[in-house]
Specification:
321 residues, alpha/beta, globular, binds NADP nicotinamide-adenine-dinucleotide phosphate
Length: 321
């Protein structure tokens, strides 16, 4: 934890929190955002990996203003502690990048008993966003550009390459979270968690309309060199090994630098100032899946998410009717 209480927030540069910033797309985005002069908080679950990321960024750019702070999105307690630690710094907040994500090979649970993929990729970020909203609102009330950015994925869309493999992504409001390890499908659960990211972003954008805070989501592209696929089954690893040359030849495979650029663009690009409720793939705005625009599912899912994380009334954001 670092403390830096200052009353005069105008002394600060723009501050960005990015989750999952010790690896892959998050680390690259953190570098690029700090290169633009932002103060970047690397919100990571492992102290050693988080500090290494901090040092790696400073080695590349000694004037980078980056700092690790501990955040485990698989623990509601850790999320609350992270927010307390952030508040203790006295810093304002301009950009929140909900980027961390994982795909597990088998059924796992978070500390609070949620299925791990939905728990980390959606529920952890859902709580984090609510607990940081007052900070974002305060910055927006000063007329500053304030953004929430969510790293989703094209695979949320059953019509996309990859998204069309296996059972299509769907949020079933009667059965949002897998609880039976025997029926666990890691690919479907990951796709559902990414659909959850898009539904959440659009509903957030609707609820925050006229608040001065924007909410957008993105797909960074298919980037097999990150750590995301580290836990996939041997069978999927082998299938990927077979198709990778073809995908590279077709130009589908992107680099970590490209993926980081997409996050950094949505987080900082001047031309996106005031733009909200959009989905970007690589650097282009794109339509997301049909279901991701379903307001009834979004509102029902929001309510269920509030109940899962036991959201205190004072943090609730009313739905727009
Ligand atoms: N790579 C792709 O092809 C691709 C495509 C579309 C979307 N995405 C999305 O891009 C985002 C970043 O993934 P990536 O590809 O860069 O993979 P990555 O290298 O594995 O990075 C994922 C990050 O999430 C962090 N994380 C995982 N569980 C966490 C937890 N409980 N609490 C806090 N942080 C946690 C990881 O931290 P640890 O090091 O501690 O595990 C890591 O820093 C994800 O949301 C992913 O769904 C990736």
């Amino acid at each position: 934890m670092f403390t830096d209480n200052q009353d005069d927030t105008s002394k600060h540069s723009r501050v960005c929190i990015i989750t999952g910033a010790n690896s892959g797309i998050g680390l690259e985005a953190a570098k690029q955002i700090s290169d633009k002069g932002y103060e970047v908080i690397l919100a990571c679950r492992s102290e050693s990996r988080g500090k290494k990321a901090e040092n790696d960024i400073k080695d590349l750019n000694p004037s980078a203003n980056v700092k690790f702070m501990k955040l485990d999105l698989g623990s509601l307690d850790s999320i609350r502690h992270f927010v307390d630690d952030f508040h203790a710094t006295g810093k304002p907040l301009h950009v929140l990048c909900n980027n961390a994500g994982l795909e597990t090979s088998g059924y796992q649970q978070t500390e609070d008993g949620f299925e791990m993929t939905l728990g980390v990729n959606h529920l952890g970020h859902f709580l984090l966003t609510h607990l940081l909203l007052e900070d974002l609102k305060k910055t927006a009330e000063r007329g500053e550009d304030v953004r929430i950015v969510v790293t989703a994925s094209e695979v949320h869309n059953p019509k996309s390459p990859g998204g069309d493999r296996g059972v299509p992504a769907h949020i079933d409001l009667d059965n949002v979270m897998v609880t039976d390890p025997d029926s666990y499908d890691s690919w479907l659960t990951y796709k559902n968690s990414k659909l959850a990211n898009v539904l959440f972003t659009y509903e957030l954008a609707r609820r925050l309309k006229d608040s001065g805070i924007t909410a957008n989501c993105l797909c960074p592209g298919f980037i097999p060199e990150t750590g995301l696929l580290r836990d996939i089954s041997m069978m999927r690893r082998f299938a990927l090994y077979l198709v990778l040359p073809l995908l590279k030849w077709k130009g589908v495979v992107r680099t970590v630098k490209d993926g980081g650029e997409t996050v950094a663009m949505v987080a900082t690009d001047e031309k996106l100032k005031g733009v909200s409720g959009k989905y970007y793939v690589n650097t282009e705005e794109k339509e997301s899946s049909k279901e991701s625009y379903d307001k009834e599912i979004a509102i029902g899912f929001w309510k269920i998410s509030e109940n899962f994380v036991k959201l205190d009334e004072k943090y609730k954001i009313p739905a727009v009717m």
